[in-house]
Request: fold
Amino acid sequence: MLIILALIGSALIPITSAQAATKVFSKVTTSDTYNRPDLNSKYDIEDVEVGLYDTDLDLIHFWIRFKQPLTAAMFNDNQGSWAGILIDTNNDDVDDIVINTYARTYSGAVGQDAYAGFRNGTKSCPATSWMDLSNNSVYLGFKVSQKCLGLGNKFEIQGYSDYISSDSVSYDYAPNSYEVIDLGDYYNPKPKATMLVPVANSTVGKVLSNYSTAPENLVNLSSSLRDSVVTIECIVGTTGGTGTGWSAKVDLPIPSYKSYLVTNYHVISDCVIRGTVNVILNNGTKIEGTLAAWDPNNDVAGIYVTQSIPQLIWQGPFPQQGAWVGVLGSPKGVPGILTTGILSSVSTTENIVTFTAPINPGNSGGPVFDSTGRVIALATAKVRDSEGFGIGNGVPLLCKTVIVCSAGLTGWGSVAAKPDPSPSPSPTNIYNRNKKTQYINLSREVSDTSVSAKYISVRATADSGLPVTSLSDDLSVCDYENGRIVLYSTGSCTIYFNQDGNDYWNTASPTVVRFEVLAPSSNKSITAKITQTSHTWAGFITSYEWISGSNPLMSNKLTTLRISGMCTGSGKTIQGWKNTDAKGKRYPNGSRPTGAAWKCIDGSFEGNVQISGGTRFYIVELPKSRGGTTIEFRVNQELDFIEYVD
Reply:
């Protein structure tokens, strides 16, 4: 079994071949240190473990460890009891995704369906939960697809359990606050292009009769390539490191960018959320690079820069075993290091090569080139404890997402056109000069739509009858397949339709479709829903007034209101309760007191409260705990001074 090292400086994480169900990633959170005094001990949780198995790296597992052994019906007890995982995807301490149990009775180690989805209702995914009752286990497990949830390589989690969902009393968190999970090299997101990517250029490298021979003048060859190779620096906090990139010979579609750099995805993975990396040129100048596209499945990525960097040719014939190769890169962060060797193997089905040129951490993404200087692969990994066993991802893998490639320009197998020996134009050349213009037509216009529509039927056809290709700039939002635009989540959807033409038809101008994928529409009126008890036995709210903050209300954006009302003769104080916390985050279940109670003075009360869109606020008259007015505030509701009578 080979153990492979990804070659990013200061981030050496072994990846083992999947031959058995081996846990290749595990992180256990810190333990819970606080329990509410009224917590039912059966629902006391200690910590959470996150794990991945090499048999399916997309399937992420969570285990909540309870203090006592689990019982089969503890979440099917007619009390609304449940447990789950809260996931914060953007580090704002607000749970964006919830994975939780249904009201099911468990049996042995048999899994039960579970819920996994976004709080805003835009997406849900199939999930499974289970208990190992036969061994009196204290672990409740969950598993769900990372790709379906769209999880990044880093997110925060917290475990939660609740005994009686309606009492807002007997519940527990573990750990006490959100904790970061970093999946590192095991992160398995979708390929993505964040902007229009370049098109493969038709310049093809020299065709030699013998590629085994070293270049006649390696000094000159290295000198001609060195300025095209850069160091990629991706450091976020205490994570990340350095790798290598190179400027690819492509046709740039965005005039403001002057060069397109290619590297491995694992070099830039920590910087995906930020969207930029540092690029250090061969002369030591540091510039900013913008992440344009990445393909985790094939471990490649593309970066735009605004500075002109000499481009390297990557189109040419198929590489052959035994051919001479050189590698340029920044091992250990030292730029411009050259090593040489031969191709020890070539796989044209997987587009992978192995080579004997030595490489080390920091070489990742650097060019593996032949004796003509043409790049044939990216230095990607090495086998641990085996010098001269480098692994390179072939340049055809760039054509999956990072670069748009026509049928004849896929990196390997591209041959320079031979001049026509005939002094007069051939029929083919005549056709080339008189190609017809073609256009791409859509069967319908596309406008903003709800993600709940699932898909939009749109046929893209060319006048020529030739097949039309498509490219989505964000595969997590939408994609085009089988005559329809498939909607995955809310956001901006941009799809480019292209047709490259042939001997008789010119390349069609790209047709672009842009629209917004909106959250599911709601039939609720954008007004507060107000419910009052009888004035004769409990306190009630008479008015509320906007003081500061977001108006209209936004989810998780706090707004301060002044609440005014009346108390009955038996009321001493009024306690406000709400179902969102001080950051606008909804509590997993139930409500909490807003703070100190408001005094009843001469039969009336007044106090300030912070709410957001989606807050349910109500008052309780003390000391007899009599419930009073309830107000449910809606997202996008506009707040003014409002008076009403019961």
